[in-house]
Amino acid sequence: MTTTPRHSAPVAAPPTDPRQSPVRRALVATGRTLQYAGLPVGIALVVGAIVLAATGNDPLAVYGRLASEAFGTPSRINATLAATTPILFTAVAAAFAYRAGVFTVGVEGSFVLGGLTAAVIGARMEGVPPVVSVLLPLLGATVAGVLVAAVPAVLRALWGVDEVVTTLMFNFIVAGVAGWSVQAFFQERGQANSATAYVSANAELPALAPPGQTSWGLVIALLLLVGYAVWMRFTTIGFEFRAVGSAPRFSAAQGLRVRTVLLIALLGAGLIGGIGGGAHALGLVHRYTEGFSAGFGFTGIAIALLARFNPIGILVGAILFGALNAAGATVQLFIDLPVQLIDILEGTVMVFAVAVFTLPRLARRRAAAKRGDA
Amino acid sequence: MIDALIASGLTLSVPLVLAALGGAIHRIAGVVNIGLESHMLTGALFGAIVSGMTGNWALGALGGMLAGAFTGWVMSLLITRLKGNEIIVGLGFNIAVIGTIGYVLRAGFGVSGTLQIDGLQRLPKIVIPGVHDVPILGALVSGKDPLFWLCVVLVPLLAWMLRNTRWGVRLRATGASEGAATSLGLRTLGLRDGAGLIAGALAALGGVALSLGTVGLFNENMTAGRGYVALAAFYFGRSRPLPTALACVLFGFFDALQIRLQTVGGFNADIISTLPYVAVVVVLAVTGIRERLTSARKVS
């Protein structure tokens, strides 16, 4: 047996040269964004177009329809933002951990257990004063999210146990435990599939624009996004996150708190994912059912990678995927188009978001040339 | 009762063993294959379609295997040539391939989820006369399909090949230290792609065992996370063929036991289904802690 290889950060932070002028830097940044985000999205659209054309659909017409279904009217925009909310949470969670070079895929599990906990507590909030009736379920969701991440976090920080596989395994463990506990304790009578009771009315997160489904959950998600940006940019521990993420050995040698960073990165991702699940339960579905998370944890990973951890990029990416999800659900009604098209696009984006688009030989030659200069 | 349990436990192990052996080979070459689920599903679908078109199970299995080998190779190329992170590429590949299969089923075949194919030939059951009625022994060796016997041959064969052949040694060298292997002139990327191709092919045969083995149809949920259980198995078996296969048999028996206990009542299927994953966390924790205690302090 070989030693377990350490996973490096999925993408390295691009170097910036402070000597460049602001305009030049902005241009370079735009070019990079196009390369990092535009190329994966472009490839995904081409792959989707090939699948569409192969099944006798006109790709351009379908994409046009998707766009108008996503942003055509205020009510469609509202639906898009409602679909954006859960994946904005999971994207922030993933970005938070990945920035520290910690490679969790367990946000999905935190999201699911957070949602279940919030739904169960929320159903018992009858007669509880208004603000507390929302905060208590959300607090429960937060604790649940952290608990899901706790074992992998401790194993990683203290003994260096590979977090990727443990967090992946915990997703399945959580799915099993959640399914079992619903059937054993929280099953609502008269429901065919396993589902909990609806949360009481005063525990629901109110809608932002009433007939639409976008709730205050979006506001919480945006606050967390801002918090993430501030954390990474302006705090000491945020600096340590970035340092550990880009150069773990160097950071340890410099006396940075590597263990603390690893622990906080994993627990924090679980915490944010848990709140996301809670907000999803209280704000949109109002209960926990089987299939509560439509792979939101994994979509969040795709968004975080696509945005290269940039807060504005995360927001744009979440809206993009939210639009796809919202439009995909209704486009089905007009043209006979299976929703799985969204999965194809999302999966392709994920694959190519981490790909390095330089021919290896070319890159080597370039590196050699650079060495020659110096 | 015990005969039925043994027989169904072994039957349920076959897809796992095939997929896990594939994953183990890829792992030995240095790639953690998260995409086993997608390869299995591809194999199950193409196996069913080809078997339906030709009315021949062997051609069906071959077709499924080739389709899975292709997906395994493509996924490996994305990891080795485009330097994509193996975990993300694997997860994304799973989502994209499973989405594509679901999409094509609905748009191309007009069915939602389950594809029934006329003229599909299922895997034959090989009944060994004389032994068949012997208790326990009969359940162990008789009434099995060809893929079961493939597993029986494959486990020692792979163990021997990894230990003794040039390919096996080079594969292990690639996984142990890519830099050293490259400096010795090995084509590490090519070796990895080859391992990916084999992983896809074997996992796809596991899928074939599902679609052509027990039920004789294709369902887009038929793998039901078996690709991840296989992942758990080769972690459990530390990528060695025999322990990996034994882990699969253990998980297969859990599965059979769970089905049986469910009908009798009492145990919850959801809880039992988490056992393989819990086992992997425990194994990783124990080996990780032990490694950390015995070796010199390393930078995390």
TrEMBL record, chain A:
One Pfam family linked to the record: BPD_transp_2
Entry's Gene Ontology cellular component terms: plasma membrane
Keyword Nucleus: no
Major place of residence: membrane
Subcellular localization(s) per the UniProt record: Cell membrane
Region Disordered, annotated ranges: 1-22
InterPro entries xref list: ABC_transp_permease (IPR001851)
Sample GO molecular function, one term: transmembrane transporter activity
Protein name (record): ABC transporter permease
Organism of provenance: Labedella gwakjiensis
Taxon lineage: Bacteria, Bacillati, Actinomycetota, Actinomycetes, Micrococcales
From TrEMBL, chain B:
Protein name from the UniProt record: ABC transporter permease
InterPro entries: ABC_transp_permease
GO cellular component: plasma membrane
GO molecular function: transmembrane transporter activity
Chain segments annotated as transmembrane: 57-80, 87-105, 146-162, 197-218, 271-289
Subcellular location(s) of the protein: Cell membrane
Protein species of origin: Labedella gwakjiensis
Chief localisation class: membrane
Keywords per UniProt: Cell membrane, Membrane, Transmembrane, Transmembrane helix
Pfam families: BPD_transp_2
Keyword Transmembrane helix annotated: yes
Membrane topology, from the record: Multi-pass membrane protein
